[in-house]
Amino acid sequence: MLNQGLRVVLLALVYALSVHASSCPPRCECSEAAQTVKCVSKDLQNIPTGIPGYTKNLFITGNQIDRIGPESFRGLENVTTLSLSNNRIFEVESHTFSSLRNLRSLDMSSNQLTLIHPEAFTVQSRVLRELNLSRALYNHSSVTDLTTALRWSTLGGLQVLDLSSNSLIYLPPRIFSHLGSLRRLQLANNSLVAIYNDTFTGLEHLEELDLTLNALKTFQEEGLRELEHLPRTQLLLGENPYTCTCGIESFATWLNGSQSRVGDMEHVVCAFPADLRNTSLLTVGELALGCHRAGEGDNLALQTSYVFLGIVLGFVGLMFLFVLYLNRKGIKKRIYDMRDACREVWEGYHYRYEIDSDPRLSQVSTSADI
Predict the structure, then answer these.
(1) Domains of the chain
(2) Rounded CA separation 2/22 (Å)
(3) LRRNT domain location, by residue (predicted)?
(4) What is the phi/psi pair of residue 48, to 5°?
Protein backbone atom coordinates (compact mmCIF):
# COMPACT_ATOMS: atom_id res chain seq x y z
CA MET A 1 0.00 0.00 0.00
CA LEU A 2 2.90 2.34 0.83
CA ASN A 3 4.52 1.78 -2.53
CA GLN A 4 1.19 2.30 -4.28
CA GLY A 5 0.64 5.59 -2.39
CA LEU A 6 4.15 6.74 -3.24
CA ARG A 7 3.52 5.87 -6.86
CA VAL A 8 0.36 7.98 -6.86
CA VAL A 9 2.20 10.95 -5.39
CA LEU A 10 4.98 10.66 -7.96
CA LEU A 11 2.47 10.42 -10.77
CA ALA A 12 0.73 13.53 -9.45
CA LEU A 13 4.03 15.42 -9.33
CA VAL A 14 4.93 14.36 -12.84
CA TYR A 15 1.50 15.42 -14.08
CA ALA A 16 1.78 18.79 -12.36
CA LEU A 17 5.23 19.35 -13.81
CA SER A 18 4.02 18.39 -17.27
CA VAL A 19 1.07 20.79 -16.97
CA HIS A 20 3.37 23.63 -15.90
CA ALA A 21 5.86 22.78 -18.60
CA SER A 22 3.18 22.70 -21.25
CA SER A 23 1.78 26.05 -20.06
CA CYS A 24 5.06 27.83 -20.75
CA PRO A 25 5.24 29.35 -24.25
CA PRO A 26 7.78 27.85 -26.65
CA ARG A 27 11.29 29.34 -26.46
CA CYS A 28 10.48 30.93 -23.08
CA GLU A 29 11.54 30.08 -19.53
CA CYS A 30 8.89 30.01 -16.84
CA SER A 31 9.20 29.87 -13.05
CA GLU A 32 6.00 29.61 -11.05
CA ALA A 33 7.91 29.93 -7.80
CA ALA A 34 9.37 33.28 -8.90
CA GLN A 35 6.21 34.14 -10.86
CA THR A 36 8.50 35.05 -13.73
CA VAL A 37 8.53 34.38 -17.47
CA LYS A 38 11.56 35.17 -19.65
CA CYS A 39 11.59 35.18 -23.45
CA VAL A 40 15.03 36.63 -24.08
CA SER A 41 16.75 36.78 -27.50
CA LYS A 42 14.60 34.08 -29.12
CA ASP A 43 13.90 35.90 -32.42
CA LEU A 44 10.22 36.17 -31.58
CA GLN A 45 8.10 38.07 -34.14
CA ASN A 46 5.14 38.64 -31.81
CA ILE A 47 4.32 38.59 -28.11
CA PRO A 48 3.99 34.84 -27.38
CA THR A 49 0.60 33.40 -26.47
CA GLY A 50 -0.02 31.07 -23.57
CA ILE A 51 1.89 33.05 -20.95
CA PRO A 52 0.84 31.62 -17.54
CA GLY A 53 -1.68 33.64 -15.55
CA TYR A 54 0.50 33.55 -12.43
CA THR A 55 3.13 35.73 -14.14
CA LYS A 56 4.09 38.90 -12.28
CA ASN A 57 7.46 39.56 -13.91
CA LEU A 58 7.48 39.31 -17.70
CA PHE A 59 10.68 39.83 -19.68
CA ILE A 60 10.38 39.75 -23.48
CA THR A 61 13.62 41.32 -24.68
CA GLY A 62 16.07 41.15 -27.56
CA ASN A 63 13.59 39.86 -30.14
CA GLN A 64 12.22 40.99 -33.53
CA ILE A 65 8.79 42.27 -32.44
CA ASP A 66 7.79 45.34 -34.47
CA ARG A 67 4.37 46.26 -33.05
CA ILE A 68 2.22 45.68 -29.98
CA GLY A 69 -1.50 46.21 -29.46
CA PRO A 70 -4.43 45.51 -27.09
CA GLU A 71 -4.39 41.79 -27.93
CA SER A 72 -0.75 41.37 -26.91
CA PHE A 73 -1.24 41.09 -23.13
CA ARG A 74 -4.79 39.86 -22.58
CA GLY A 75 -5.27 37.64 -19.54
CA LEU A 76 -2.14 38.94 -17.78
CA GLU A 77 -3.78 40.92 -15.02
CA ASN A 78 -1.16 39.89 -12.45
CA VAL A 79 1.83 41.33 -14.29
CA THR A 80 3.51 44.10 -12.26
CA THR A 81 6.85 44.34 -14.12
CA LEU A 82 7.01 44.27 -17.92
CA SER A 83 10.24 44.62 -19.88
CA LEU A 84 10.06 44.95 -23.67
CA SER A 85 13.50 46.45 -24.26
CA ASN A 86 15.53 45.95 -27.43
CA ASN A 87 12.73 44.47 -29.54
CA ARG A 88 12.72 46.89 -32.50
CA ILE A 89 9.17 47.92 -31.68
CA PHE A 90 8.10 50.85 -33.88
CA GLU A 91 4.33 51.00 -33.24
CA VAL A 92 2.39 51.07 -29.98
CA GLU A 93 -1.37 51.03 -30.44
CA SER A 94 -3.91 52.66 -28.14
CA HIS A 95 -4.92 50.66 -25.04
CA THR A 96 -2.02 48.23 -25.51
CA PHE A 97 -1.51 47.95 -21.75
CA SER A 98 -5.12 48.45 -20.60
CA SER A 99 -5.54 44.80 -19.51
CA LEU A 100 -2.46 44.98 -17.24
CA ARG A 101 -4.38 46.21 -14.21
CA ASN A 102 -1.46 45.81 -11.78
CA LEU A 103 1.38 47.07 -13.99
CA ARG A 104 3.80 49.18 -11.99
CA SER A 105 6.97 49.16 -14.10
CA LEU A 106 7.18 49.32 -17.92
CA ASP A 107 10.53 49.19 -19.74
CA MET A 108 10.46 49.95 -23.46
CA SER A 109 14.04 51.12 -23.79
CA SER A 110 16.20 50.53 -26.87
CA ASN A 111 13.35 50.26 -29.35
CA GLN A 112 12.52 52.26 -32.50
CA LEU A 113 9.24 53.92 -31.60
CA THR A 114 7.98 55.78 -34.64
CA LEU A 115 4.21 55.61 -34.26
CA ILE A 116 2.81 56.12 -30.77
CA HIS A 117 -0.97 56.18 -30.72
CA PRO A 118 -2.69 58.84 -28.55
CA GLU A 119 -3.80 56.40 -25.81
CA ALA A 120 -0.83 54.09 -26.06
CA PHE A 121 -0.03 54.34 -22.34
CA THR A 122 -3.55 54.17 -20.97
CA VAL A 123 -3.60 51.91 -17.90
CA GLN A 124 -6.99 51.44 -16.26
CA SER A 125 -5.83 51.17 -12.66
CA ARG A 126 -3.36 54.11 -12.90
CA VAL A 127 -0.83 52.22 -10.77
CA LEU A 128 2.04 52.53 -13.28
CA ARG A 129 4.96 54.08 -11.40
CA GLU A 130 7.97 53.73 -13.74
CA LEU A 131 8.19 54.22 -17.51
CA ASN A 132 11.54 53.73 -19.23
CA LEU A 133 11.76 55.13 -22.77
CA SER A 134 15.51 55.64 -22.96
CA ARG A 135 16.97 55.06 -26.44
CA ALA A 136 13.42 54.31 -27.61
CA LEU A 137 12.36 57.24 -29.84
CA TYR A 138 13.29 56.68 -33.47
CA ASN A 139 13.09 60.26 -34.75
CA HIS A 140 12.09 63.79 -33.79
CA SER A 141 8.49 63.42 -35.02
CA SER A 142 7.92 60.68 -32.45
CA VAL A 143 8.39 63.34 -29.74
CA THR A 144 5.15 64.95 -30.90
CA ASP A 145 3.36 61.58 -30.70
CA LEU A 146 4.82 61.01 -27.24
CA THR A 147 3.59 64.43 -26.08
CA THR A 148 0.05 63.58 -27.17
CA ALA A 149 0.26 60.13 -25.59
CA LEU A 150 1.45 61.54 -22.26
CA ARG A 151 -1.43 64.03 -22.24
CA TRP A 152 -4.13 61.53 -23.23
CA SER A 153 -2.98 58.55 -21.21
CA THR A 154 -3.80 57.83 -17.57
CA LEU A 155 -0.37 58.33 -16.04
CA GLY A 156 -1.39 60.49 -13.11
CA GLY A 157 0.45 58.16 -10.72
CA LEU A 158 3.70 57.94 -12.69
CA GLN A 159 6.73 58.72 -10.52
CA VAL A 160 9.75 57.93 -12.73
CA LEU A 161 10.11 58.80 -16.42
CA ASP A 162 13.33 58.05 -18.30
CA LEU A 163 13.77 59.83 -21.65
CA SER A 164 17.56 59.74 -21.73
CA SER A 165 19.64 59.06 -24.85
CA ASN A 166 16.95 59.98 -27.38
CA SER A 167 18.78 62.78 -29.22
CA LEU A 168 16.09 65.22 -28.11
CA ILE A 169 16.78 68.74 -29.37
CA TYR A 170 13.78 70.40 -27.73
CA LEU A 171 10.89 69.61 -25.42
CA PRO A 172 7.39 70.71 -26.47
CA PRO A 173 5.68 73.14 -24.07
CA ARG A 174 3.76 71.47 -21.23
CA ILE A 175 4.85 67.99 -22.32
CA PHE A 176 4.80 66.83 -18.68
CA SER A 177 1.79 68.84 -17.53
CA HIS A 178 -0.35 65.71 -16.92
CA LEU A 179 2.30 63.94 -14.85
CA GLY A 180 1.58 65.66 -11.55
CA SER A 181 2.99 62.82 -9.40
CA LEU A 182 6.35 62.62 -11.17
CA ARG A 183 9.29 62.41 -8.78
CA ARG A 184 12.25 61.72 -11.08
CA LEU A 185 12.72 62.89 -14.67
CA GLN A 186 15.77 61.70 -16.58
CA LEU A 187 16.73 63.72 -19.68
CA ALA A 188 20.44 62.96 -19.74
CA ASN A 189 22.50 62.32 -22.87
CA ASN A 190 20.24 64.18 -25.29
CA SER A 191 20.89 67.25 -27.47
CA LEU A 192 18.82 69.85 -25.64
CA VAL A 193 20.10 73.34 -26.45
CA ALA A 194 17.78 75.38 -24.24
CA ILE A 195 14.98 75.23 -21.69
CA TYR A 196 11.96 77.34 -22.59
CA ASN A 197 8.85 78.62 -20.85
CA ASP A 198 6.34 75.96 -19.75
CA THR A 199 8.79 73.10 -20.27
CA PHE A 200 8.32 71.79 -16.72
CA THR A 201 4.81 73.04 -16.02
CA GLY A 202 2.87 70.71 -13.72
CA LEU A 203 5.86 69.08 -12.01
CA GLU A 204 5.31 70.52 -8.53
CA HIS A 205 6.39 67.28 -6.82
CA LEU A 206 9.52 66.62 -8.87
CA GLU A 207 12.47 65.60 -6.69
CA GLU A 208 15.20 64.99 -9.28
CA LEU A 209 15.83 66.42 -12.76
CA ASP A 210 18.78 65.06 -14.75
CA LEU A 211 19.98 67.35 -17.59
CA THR A 212 23.56 66.10 -17.81
CA LEU A 213 25.30 65.45 -21.13
CA ASN A 214 23.16 67.73 -23.26
CA ALA A 215 24.06 70.69 -25.50
CA LEU A 216 23.29 73.46 -23.02
CA LYS A 217 25.63 76.45 -23.42
CA THR A 218 23.86 78.53 -20.79
CA PHE A 219 20.46 79.10 -19.23
CA GLN A 220 18.65 82.18 -20.47
CA GLU A 221 16.19 84.08 -18.28
CA GLU A 222 13.21 81.92 -19.27
CA GLY A 223 15.18 78.75 -18.57
CA LEU A 224 16.14 80.04 -15.12
CA ARG A 225 12.49 80.83 -14.44
CA GLU A 226 11.60 77.24 -15.26
CA LEU A 227 14.18 76.00 -12.73
CA GLU A 228 12.81 78.43 -10.17
CA HIS A 229 9.39 76.81 -10.62
CA LEU A 230 10.96 73.59 -9.24
CA PRO A 231 12.10 74.77 -5.79
CA ARG A 232 12.23 71.27 -4.25
CA THR A 233 14.00 69.59 -7.14
CA GLN A 234 17.57 68.30 -7.00
CA LEU A 235 19.20 69.31 -10.30
CA LEU A 236 21.93 67.54 -12.27
CA LEU A 237 23.39 70.04 -14.74
CA GLY A 238 26.98 68.89 -15.30
CA GLU A 239 28.89 67.84 -18.43
CA ASN A 240 27.29 70.40 -20.73
CA PRO A 241 29.32 72.62 -23.13
CA TYR A 242 28.85 75.83 -21.15
CA THR A 243 30.25 78.85 -22.99
CA CYS A 244 31.66 81.30 -20.47
CA THR A 245 31.17 84.63 -22.19
CA CYS A 246 29.25 87.67 -20.98
CA GLY A 247 25.91 85.99 -21.77
CA ILE A 248 26.42 83.44 -18.99
CA GLU A 249 26.58 85.97 -16.17
CA SER A 250 22.95 85.52 -15.09
CA PHE A 251 23.35 81.74 -14.94
CA ALA A 252 26.58 82.04 -12.95
CA THR A 253 24.88 84.38 -10.49
CA TRP A 254 21.94 81.97 -10.17
CA LEU A 255 24.29 79.06 -9.52
CA ASN A 256 26.02 80.91 -6.71
CA GLY A 257 22.65 81.37 -5.03
CA SER A 258 21.43 77.80 -5.70
CA GLN A 259 24.41 75.59 -4.89
CA SER A 260 22.42 73.37 -2.53
CA ARG A 261 20.04 72.42 -5.35
CA VAL A 262 22.70 71.29 -7.84
CA GLY A 263 23.89 67.79 -7.05
CA ASP A 264 26.87 67.72 -9.43
CA MET A 265 28.24 71.23 -9.06
CA GLU A 266 31.81 69.98 -9.55
CA HIS A 267 30.93 69.09 -13.15
CA VAL A 268 29.28 72.43 -13.97
CA VAL A 269 32.33 73.97 -15.64
CA CYS A 270 33.23 76.06 -18.66
CA ALA A 271 33.90 74.26 -21.93
CA PHE A 272 34.66 77.43 -23.93
CA PRO A 273 36.70 79.58 -24.37
CA ALA A 274 39.90 77.58 -24.11
CA ASP A 275 41.50 79.76 -21.44
CA LEU A 276 38.52 79.14 -19.10
CA ARG A 277 38.06 75.43 -19.83
CA ASN A 278 37.25 73.35 -16.71
CA THR A 279 36.78 76.53 -14.67
CA SER A 280 33.88 76.24 -12.26
CA LEU A 281 30.96 78.49 -13.12
CA LEU A 282 30.87 79.45 -9.46
CA THR A 283 34.06 81.41 -9.95
CA VAL A 284 33.13 82.89 -13.31
CA GLY A 285 31.70 86.35 -12.81
CA GLU A 286 32.17 89.95 -13.73
CA LEU A 287 35.85 89.97 -12.80
CA ALA A 288 36.71 86.86 -14.82
CA LEU A 289 34.72 87.85 -17.88
CA GLY A 290 35.24 91.62 -17.68
CA CYS A 291 31.78 92.19 -19.11
CA HIS A 292 31.07 95.52 -17.43
CA ARG A 293 34.49 96.93 -18.29
CA ALA A 294 33.99 95.86 -21.87
CA GLY A 295 30.61 97.55 -21.90
CA GLU A 296 32.04 100.77 -20.54
CA GLY A 297 34.77 100.66 -23.16
CA ASP A 298 32.22 100.20 -25.89
CA ASN A 299 30.19 103.17 -24.61
CA LEU A 300 33.31 105.33 -24.44
CA ALA A 301 34.27 104.40 -27.99
CA LEU A 302 30.76 105.20 -29.16
CA GLN A 303 30.82 108.56 -27.43
CA THR A 304 34.26 109.33 -28.91
CA SER A 305 32.95 108.49 -32.38
CA TYR A 306 30.04 110.90 -31.96
CA VAL A 307 32.39 113.70 -30.82
CA PHE A 308 34.74 113.11 -33.73
CA LEU A 309 31.84 113.12 -36.20
CA GLY A 310 30.61 116.41 -34.75
CA ILE A 311 34.05 117.98 -35.14
CA VAL A 312 34.31 116.83 -38.75
CA LEU A 313 30.87 118.17 -39.63
CA GLY A 314 31.64 121.47 -37.92
CA PHE A 315 34.91 121.81 -39.87
CA VAL A 316 33.13 121.09 -43.16
CA GLY A 317 30.54 123.75 -42.32
CA LEU A 318 33.24 126.33 -41.58
CA MET A 319 35.04 125.54 -44.84
CA PHE A 320 31.78 125.99 -46.77
CA LEU A 321 31.18 129.41 -45.17
CA PHE A 322 34.78 130.44 -45.84
CA VAL A 323 34.45 129.55 -49.54
CA LEU A 324 31.26 131.56 -49.72
CA TYR A 325 33.01 134.56 -48.16
CA LEU A 326 35.93 134.43 -50.61
CA ASN A 327 33.57 134.30 -53.59
CA ARG A 328 31.10 136.84 -52.27
CA LYS A 329 31.60 139.31 -55.17
CA GLY A 330 31.27 136.69 -57.87
CA ILE A 331 28.28 135.22 -56.11
CA LYS A 332 26.73 138.69 -55.81
CA LYS A 333 27.29 139.34 -59.55
CA ARG A 334 25.72 135.99 -60.44
CA ILE A 335 22.73 136.78 -58.28
CA TYR A 336 22.28 140.18 -60.01
CA ASP A 337 22.62 138.60 -63.45
CA MET A 338 20.02 136.00 -62.56
CA ARG A 339 17.76 138.77 -61.26
CA ASP A 340 18.10 140.81 -64.51
CA ALA A 341 17.49 137.73 -66.65
CA CYS A 342 14.41 136.86 -64.67
CA ARG A 343 13.19 140.48 -65.00
CA GLU A 344 13.64 140.45 -68.79
CA VAL A 345 11.78 137.20 -69.09
CA TRP A 346 9.02 138.50 -66.91
CA GLU A 347 8.72 141.73 -68.93
CA GLY A 348 8.56 139.70 -72.15
CA TYR A 349 5.74 137.55 -70.75
CA HIS A 350 3.97 140.68 -69.52
CA TYR A 351 4.26 142.39 -72.89
CA ARG A 352 2.99 139.31 -74.68
CA TYR A 353 0.06 139.14 -72.32
CA GLU A 354 -0.91 142.76 -73.06
CA ILE A 355 -0.82 142.19 -76.85
CA ASP A 356 -2.90 139.02 -76.58
CA SER A 357 -5.45 140.72 -74.38
CA ASP A 358 -5.91 143.85 -76.65
CA PRO A 359 -7.08 143.08 -80.27
CA ARG A 360 -5.95 146.46 -81.53
CA LEU A 361 -2.40 145.93 -80.34
CA SER A 362 -2.52 142.48 -81.83
CA GLN A 363 -3.40 143.92 -85.28
CA VAL A 364 -0.63 146.52 -85.03
CA SER A 365 1.84 143.84 -84.08
CA THR A 366 0.73 141.72 -87.05
CA SER A 367 1.02 144.58 -89.59
CA ALA A 368 4.38 145.53 -88.19
CA ASP A 369 5.58 142.03 -88.70
CA ILE A 370 4.43 142.20 -92.39
Answers:
(1) 27-158 (3.80.10.10), 169-289 (3.80.10.10), 298-369 (no CATH)
(2) 30
(3) 23-57
(4) -65, 150
> Could you give the CA distance from residue 127 to residue 104 in angstroms, rounded to a whole number?
6
Q: Which residue has the higher pLDDT, 286 or 312?
A: 312
Under 8 Å CB-to-CB from 35, ≥6 apart: which residues? 54, 55, 56, 57, 78
> CB-based contacts of 256: which residues, under 8 Å, 6+ apart?
282, 285
> Per DSSP, what are the bridge partners of residue 209?
185, 235
Task: Express each pLDDT in 88-127 by its tens digit.
Answer: 999 999 999 999 999 999 999 999 999 999 999 998 778 9
CB 68 within 8 A of CB 92: yes
**Residue 347: helix, strand or coil by DSSP?**
helix
Confidence (pLDDT) at 2: 44
Tell me the whole-structure pTM to 2 decimals: 0.74
* Cα dist from 286 to 207, 251, 258, 294, whole Å: 32, 12, 18, 10
If pLDDT is split at 50, 70 and 90, which confidence band does 66 have? very high
